[in-house]
Amino acid sequence: MTTKITEIVDVEDLSRPTNSNEMTNFVPSLHHDTYPFITPTGSELVTKSIFITGASRGLGRATAIRCAKAGCAKIALAARGSLAGVVQEIEETVREAGIPPPQILPLQVDVTSDKSVRAAAKAVYEAFGGKLDILVNNAGHFTKFKPIHEVDPRNADTKIVINLSSMATNCLTYGASAYQVSRFSNCWFSEFVARDYERQSVSLCTLDKANLPEDTVVWLCSQRREWLNARFVIGNWDMEELEKKKSEIVEKDLFKYRITT
After folding, report:
1. The domain that contains 132 carries what CATH number?
2. Domains identified in the chain, total number
3. Quick check: is 10 in a domain?
4. What domain range includes position 195?
5. Is the pLDDT confidence value at 42 over 70?
6. Is the Cβ–Cβ distance between 69 and 94 less than 8 Å?
7. Which residues pair with 166 in a beta bridge?
8. pTM
9. What is the pLDDT of residues 63-118, one digit of tens each?
10. Is 81 inside a domain boundary?
11. Residue 190 CB: number of other CB atoms within 10 A?
């Protein structure tokens, strides 16, 4: 029994949360799967164009499919691996839903290569007539957990509208410095993007069952919400309840990283 208690304490110590609990409980209701208020109906993204990185699997792939279900007109997909599977699934999804098929642009992209990212941006610009409504920056470089001095650094230069991250940004987990610091830096970078391009909307989502973060992304993209500009959003929150706290969020300038006294 003593050994088990020690193991639990050790695990908690490895991931030292800061104010994660307070943030998680900001709204009364939490979700771990999609719910009616954010579920796409087929009209949310009609006429819109979107570029999703890391789209061959996981969150990126599911986001692409849900955006197609929301009626998105133009979808650019970026990944290092094959995109044939997600393209086929998008086509099947819109066919079953009776939605006009979107223009799909699959691109082989390595986000750790500036040259590759620039080539992808040019391809999207040319294919979509110089217009891009939504950018979902999902791809990331994930290394084996190591102390920071043992990790080979990687760089990427991407402007962000919606930046997927993790609640891990609010914890200190031994050996996870490369991942958690890079995800945390996205939050700060988002604020600079919002300052430089004030008509951008930047938010973050966490990972649960597949449809929850993807439908949250669709909800965030469905209309401009300036009151969320440069703030992070926890995907488990009930977005309808979050909207009711709009005044409090703006007045207190919540959900940005700050040093307070």
Report:
1. 3.40.50.720
2. 1
3. no
4. 29-252
5. yes
6. yes
7. none
8. 0.68
9. 999 999 999 999 999 999 999 999 999 999 999 999 999 999 999 999 888 899 99
10. yes
11. 27
